[in-house]
Amino acid sequence: MGFCCCIAGFQAGAQRYLADYDSTLFIKDTVRPLVNRYQNLSISGYMQPQFQVAQKEGEATFEGGNFAPNSRSRFLLRRARVKVDYLLPAKERNFPKALFTFQIDATERGVIVRDMFLRLYEPKQQNFSLTMGLFGRPFGYEVNLSSSYRETPERGRMSQILMPGERDMGAMVSYESQNPQRKDPTFKLDVGVFNGIGPSGVTDFDSYKDLISRLSLKEWKISKTVKLSGGLSFLNGGWRQDTKYRYKVSNGNGIQNFAVDSSLANIGRKTPRHYYGADVQLALLHRRGKTEWRAEYWRGTQPGTASATVSPASQPLGPTYIRQFDGAFFYFLQTLWNPHWELMLKYDWYDPNRLIAASEIGKSNTNFTPADIKYTTLGVGLTRYFTGNLKLLAYYDLVRNEKTSLPGYEQDVPDNVFTFRIQLRF
């Protein structure tokens, strides 16, 4: 009885308090500060579940990673990413605008961080910015084209080998005019210094850094029906050599081979890593949609080991092999009956050792290995766009390698892959 009286008294007191309370104070003091705090917060992401079929069990491929030894088909959650951006506006004249970005990729194989960086804009015109953290390396067009917008399931073989993970830890200064004239071309310049090991999740293993820069022409609408963009890229870097043995391609007795330099001065020496790139994109707009061509070419010097040319995430052990490489990507995109259907053709190659011929690989006393074999890939795909956020993709990759004298590579290795993917963005 006493407990019920206490409850009744509390309810009566609460009603009298609420009757006298001005609800606008609650909105002003509690709701509005909370809303204002998060009004510059945005969340986006996308998911790419897919099904793949390979030519053989245990196939080694760059289409989402190698197949298991006893499998030639698989369901795979290729990417499932959530990105958070928070923009801190410039409230005062000398206060810089700041952007914080955090992105994770969560699949059946685990959770990894893809982006985590802070970008500061100079206060007055915001043409200059400084970026520090884990973010995309400013080299090439394909490397920096988001996987949520790229028409093909994966980047090319050369991109994956030379720029694994696309990101790296570093700092970058950028210039981009925020008030360009509508009809004039707009350029952007990025110059950055990076660890050089990619998003490996480990601390840099040496003191050498990569200098990467890119000068790009932003999409320029030349006329009502023509759009043009492009860029020039440069990388100068390398990593610490662990032994005294350094191999370079030489012509001895009329035979191309890897010749060794075994000077003690090579221990701890910086290996040469130099890339040069150029790209261009041209789009023609018409009533059915668009027709687009893209071309990109890389050339340079890549250090590696006897069996691999991939850029390492940890200290490479054993002798160092210096190779002169080149490669390219070509895209053709064509709207079919209407903007909901798009046909794509892609051709790319990667030649890790362009100074030698296929016939020389496998000869005795040359020291050439499968890491020196050139690969070409022709991709054919069809995309059905339901909305700007939902699409279906069917894509087939035909991969060809050089025919050499190496055991297992006398003929083309069967490594074609078919991919069917659904993608949803939000």
Question: Order of strands in the sheet with the most strands?
Answer: 1-2-3-4-5-6-7-8-9-12-13-14-15-16-17-18
Order of helices and strands: HHEEEEEHEEEEEEEEEEEEE
Question: Could you tell me the number of beta strands?
Answer: 18
Low-confidence stretches: 1-8
Radius of gyration: 27 Å
With helices defined by DSSP (H or I, 4 residues minimum), what is the helix count? 3
* Beta fraction: over 45%
Rounded mean pLDDT is 90
* Helix proportion: under 10%
What profile does the largest beta sheet have?
16 strands, antiparallel, barrel
| Structural class determined from secondary elements | mainly beta
Span from first to last CA? 56 Å
The 3D shape can be described as globular
Secondary structure topology:
Layout: H1 2-20, H2 23-38, E1 41-54, E2 73-88, E3 97-107, E4 110-121, E5 128-136, H3 157-162, E6 167-176, E7 187-194, E8 210-221, E9 226-237, E10 246-252, E11 255-261, E12 273-286, E13 289-304, E14 320-335, E15 341-351, E16 375-385, E17 390-401, E18 417-425
Parallel strand pairs: 10-14
Antiparallel strand pairs: 1-2, 1-18, 2-3, 3-4, 4-5, 5-6, 6-7, 7-8, 8-9, 9-12, 10-11, 12-13, 13-14, 14-15, 15-16, 16-17, 17-18
